[in-house]
Amino acid sequence: YAYEISTGRKIRITNDNTVKPGLTLMLAGRKLLWTMYLSPYSSIDKATFIYDFDTGTTTEITGKIGTSITISDFDGQRIVLQTGYLSPTNIYLYDLATSQLTLIDSGDANTQGSSVSNPKISGNKILYKWIGGWNTFWCRENGLRLYDIATGEKTLIFNGFACGGAGDYAIDGDNIIATFASGSNNPQSISQYKISTGEGTFTSSSF
Predict the structure, then answer these.
(1) DSSP 8-state secondary structure symbol assigned to residue 65
(2) Burial, 86: exposed, middle or buried (Cβ in 10 Å; 0-12, 13-18, 19+)?
(3) Which of 9, 77, 146, 170 could lock onto 155 through a cystine, CB 3.0 to 4.6 A?
(4) How remote is the C-alpha of 123 from its chain's centroid?
């Protein structure tokens, strides 16, 4: 069910016998996205659906985006998702209006453990975690990559040093905020990055 706060109306989205384990929900604007396992015995393959509150219709998009996926973010019109659970992984963008699935980035197939994951979308930008090869400290290079949908340009920001790297992060318009650690056992700090200027600022003491 969905509950409409302004009217107090309860809207039934699915029938009781259609929902399977592994249910996840994302609400954006007037659309609801949900995924669930294809069967009670599956823990990997998923089915994906979109419910439109304006039309009251449900559309399954499983055949267009695949089943071995993890959906990370949804803005009401576009979905960003990850395929693969082991290196190398891939990030895709799916546009509901055009039914087009576009590859955004992939882990390096020639580098063991290289991956891209957890994409987040805001406007024409996609932010995601990137893990590369081993550095001189025998720790993996890791940071955040920013993808511009309009130009296809990728920018590496907040590259990790030593054994630290990016933790949690969020993007909102021109601003990115992320937690980082300078080492695997070191305290984290919060940093802010402004896309338009390409400048990062330290916004919080370590904790």
Answers:
(1) H
(2) exposed
(3) 146
(4) 14
Note the pLDDT of residue 25: 92
Residues recorded for the chain: 207
Mean pLDDT by 10 residues, the chain (207 residues): 91 78 89 88 83 93 89 95 80 95 88 84 94 66 89 83 70 89 64 86 56
Say which residues have a Cβ less than 8 Å from residue 35's Cβ, sequence separation at least 6: 22, 23, 24, 46, 47, 48, 49, 69, 71
Instruction: Report CA-CA distances (Å) from 15 to 19, 58, 115, 193.
Output: 7, 12, 38, 44
CA torsion, ordered 9, 23, 69, 151, to nearest 10 deg: 30
pLDDT of residue 58: 93
Phi-psi region of 153 (alpha: psi -120 to 50; beta: other; left: phi over 0): beta
The per-residue pLDDT for 15 is 76
